[in-house]
Amino acid sequence: MKRWFAKSLNRKLSLLILFAVVLPLLTMGTVSYRIATSVTEDKAKEAGMNTLRQMTDKLDFVIQDVENMSIFLIGQRDVQAYLGKEESDINLYSQLIGTLWNLSYSKKYIANITITPKNSNPVLYTTTITNSGLAPLLQQYETTNKSAPKWWSPLYDIQTSDGLRKVISLVRPIRDFSLFKALGTLSFSLDQSEIEHYLTDAGWETSGFVVLVDANNRIIAGGDRKWLMKDMSEVFPNLHGLTETSGVSNVLQGMHPYTVLYNGLPRVGWKLVGFIPTEIYQKQNGFVLTVTAVTILIALLLAMALVIYFLRWVTNPLMKLTKYLKDLNPDEMIPTFEVRSVDEVGLLVHSYNKLSDRISRLKDQVQLNEAMKKEADIMALQAQINPHFLYNTLSSIHWIALMNKDRQIAEMVGALSDFLRFSLNKGEEFCVVQQEVSHAQNYAYIQAIRFPDQFEIEFFIDPEMTTNIMLKLLLQPLIENSLIHGIQKKKTKGHIYVHGELREHDMKFVVEDTGIGMDEVKLRDIHGQLASANQKLGIRSEADEERKKVVTSYGLINVHRRLLLHYGAGAGLVLESTLGTGTRITFLIPRERGELSL
């Protein structure tokens, strides 16, 4: 498959362009799908929250209406008079019953209004109650009831002439306006079934439900009837975090995940909690996914058809030119090809037509170059005589010095001979580490004789790295730089240290001196030249030429460029220097090239 693509520019371009089209389409489709699903979910949550707010407003209106009516009855003169008399007044009793009846008749959510006197007067009520669960609740919550100006009871049952009903009551104490003593108790009972209508008639999600929770976190309306008066944590053990006035949460009820929306009624501490099944979003998201996938597929097929058509239109001239050139004889004159367009392909064909004349001239040039090459080979053979003549002459001087017992001259000449022999080295670019170190030692020995008592040099080379291969003529220029620019400008004796360390993947070399060092300006300038060489690999710009007029450390730049050319950007020189202390130069060489014997 790989070779099949490699043999056709048309196939490679088709694959690359299709990939360039498919990737944005898939990315755009994925992003669009996620945005659409997020918007769908947000819209559903927003609609659910608006519905909860509408329910909250209705319930808050009912609660406020009941509280307002209770305040009205507490302050009503007839009520105060009835509760303040020790003897029963039948006319006043009938009048108050009528007042209570009028208040509750037009409001379906009021199941009963009861005024219980402290004296012996009969109890006032709008519905005949044979059994009520309010009395036990008043005893259970006696502390809260007596200390508060109003108290909303939990859900409880009352037995009336119409049957069993579930109610929630607002209980208020009635006190004398003058003496502020307790005269009785007023209770407004709300019909739980009517409150539940507010939840079921609000248009909530058909597969979801809403529950009303009281201040004690118990369900008082909505949901399953068996949940009534149960704690929310008992019915929904996985539901947490409904501590705010309103918000959004998630819960797993059974095997069904739900999105939970809640909104509070601060007046009484109740909360409306709505449950929306997550599968509603998933169905809508499935539709969005289907539409997105179909759209992307259609766009992809259209893009493929257009890509194939336009690529063939563009590459047909190139395919014809390739087929035309395939059977050409290189030794014959290349014929011209008809140009039919002025675009890049046409310019390519036009350039091809120029090749015929150009190749003819190149043939003549090649013949001339062959003749010049033979002449250069002869000159190269003659040039090889000069190094041998130089080696023989130095060898003769070496033996004459030994015969005259001048050992220092003999060793200096021997070191110079080895130095020159290694420098030429038959044109080889690489050597083993031991040869490079010996070459540097020969140079240091010659310089030590030339400049006695000016410096000392020490070599610390890992013995295990002596047979590894490295680019030659790297250490000697660095030692020369330390000697000329660091040690010789120092009034006292200096030291040069050469370190070689074999590491797991590379070899590390360090040339360090105790010379005069460099100030920040000069160090920054040399760093700039090294960086420029690193970027351009030896191609100098006008800015580089200006920089060379200031810095004279040509050896550093040349070594740095050779390292970059042979080993890559990671092998360049690292220069550190402190004025008055010395200079440290470091470079790394990979050790993947194997080993050679000396």
From TrEMBL:
It is a multi-pass membrane protein. One of its GO terms (molecular function) is phosphorelay sensor kinase activity. Residues 312-364 form the HAMP domain. It holds the Pfam family His_kinase. It comes from the Bacteria. GO terms for cellular component: plasma membrane. The keyword Phosphoprotein applies. CDD domains: HAMP (cd06225). It is found in: Cell membrane. The chain crosses the membrane at residues 287-311. Keywords: Cell membrane, Kinase, Membrane, Phosphoprotein, Transferase, Transmembrane, Transmembrane helix. InterPro entries: Bact_2-comp_sensor_kinase (IPR050640), HAMP_dom (IPR003660), HATPase_C_sf (IPR036890), HATPase_dom (IPR003594), Sig_transdc_His_kin_internal (IPR010559). This is Histidine kinase. It comes from Paenibacillus oryzisoli.
